[in-house]
Design goal:
The protein is mostly beta strands and about 325 residues long. The protein has two domains: about 140 residues, Hotdog Thioesterase (Thiol Ester Dehydrase, Chain A), CATH 3.10.129.10; about 140 residues, Acyl-CoA thioesterase, double hotdog domain (Porin). Helix content is about 15%, strand content about 35%. It has six helices and 18 strands. A 14-stranded antiparallel beta sheet has the order 1-2-3-7-8-9-6-14-17-16-15-12-11-10. The protein has a two-stranded antiparallel sheet with strand order 4-5. The chain has a two-stranded antiparallel sheet with strand order 13-18. The protein is globular and about 65 Å long. The two termini are about 30 Å apart. This is Acyl-CoA thioesterase-like C-terminal domain-containing protein.
């Protein structure tokens, strides 16, 4: 496969566990101008036996933010635009076949650069059909015909530092952060060694009082890694699910809640943030398909991001390896 640029970017492996799990390297550009990155899925960051989709999609903005200079060096206009794009504004992801342990490739394509300081990017995550294949180290080793697309993402980039205008909030979930005083230490069933968590347990059933499908918690990385745009994407999809507050009679047994679509809108720049206060709620479950809304704050009460998911309520057995080859849809 011929390429537009053979320049490779040497990056040092990071020290923090989350960054190690999401590490990848720039391997070149295709003839069509897409920037290509490659890495390996870390199976330790999984929900059940399915690698966490959130870990994979949040790779995309990191690639762009870290390597924009190399990505755009061949085009002076794109280079100037890239230098002004400091922040993620919105992420919309569609999941396709489930991700698995093994190599992956990410392609980034510009859809709509703008002289007004915004840029829309198309980002795809792909894995080789042969999951034993090595991670490509150069774009010439990457043949799209040998890969299967796993996620399709649209990113909007901009610079929040330069945004000015009207400010008005009238969203009940995002009106204020949850109270840390109402929380107690808790532990997730998966990836608990990487996560510190405090949770308001009042949404669970209390005696004869049924629970409500909401989660209010405070979370951070156990190794002290600070919160940034990259990890905000992770925390927007990492929580003990609100549906688990409902009675098993309503759910119909143990359930998995795979994400079909995910949208994240980033509202402010995280500054010296080590913990996130967040609320998530499920307004509607209709025929096993449901929507989920979330709001994430820093500990000073600043709104960092809001998120909306479209998900399915399916038997937990769908999370097993025997079902992993089936499309979520």
């Amino acid at each position: 496969m011929s390429i537009a640029s053979s320049t490779q970017v040497t990056t040092q492996p990071p020290q923090k566990a989350f960054d190690q799990a999401t590490f990848s390297s720039y391997i070149g550009q295709t003839v069509s101008g897409t920037a290509v990155y490659a890495g390996r899925v870390n199976p330790k960051w999984s929900v059940g036996q399915v690698p966490a989709v959130s870990v994979l999609y949040l790779l995309h903005p990191l690639h762009y933010l870290t390597h924009s200079r190399q990505t755009y060096a061949y085009n002076a206009f794109f280079y100037r635009v890239a230098m002004s794009l400091q922040c993620l504004l919105e992420l919309c992801l569609i999941t396709l076949p489930p991700t698995k342990g093994g190599a992956f490739v990410v392609e980034i394509r510009e859809l709509k650069p703008s002289k007004f300081g915004y840029c829309v990017l198309e980002v795809t995550l792909q894995q080789p059909k042969d999951l034993t294949a090595p991670v490509p180290t150069h774009v010439n080793e990457y043949d799209p015909a040998d890969y299967v697309k796993k996620t399709h993402t649209i990113l909007t980039m901009g610079n929040m530092e330069k945004e000015k205008g009207t400010n008005y909030i009238h969203t009940p979930l995002a009106a204020k952060p949850p109270s840390f005083d109402a929380m107690e230490p808790n532990q997730a069933d998966f990836m608990s060694e990487f996560i510190d968590m405090y949770q308001d347990m009042s949404t669970y059933p209390q005696g004869d009082k049924p629970g409500i499908p909401e989660v209010h918690h405070c979370v951070g990385f156990s190794d002290g890694r600070p919160i940034d745009f990259k990890s905000l994407a992770f925390w927007s999809d990492m929580f003990i699910h609100p549906n688990y507050s409902l009675d098993q009679k309503i759910l119909g047994g143990p359930r998995w809640c795979p994400t079909m679509q995910l949208e994240i809108q980033f509202k402010s720049v995280p500054r010296n943030v080590n913990k996130v206060l967040a609320s998530f709620a499920v307004p509607h479950i209709i025929n096993n398909r449901f929507d989920l809304d979330g709001a994430l704050f820093d500990q000073q009460g600043n709104l960092l991001a809001i998120t909306r998911h479209q998900c399915l309520l399916v038997p937990w057995e769908r999370n097993t390896p025997s079902a992993a080859t089936k499309n979520k849809l």
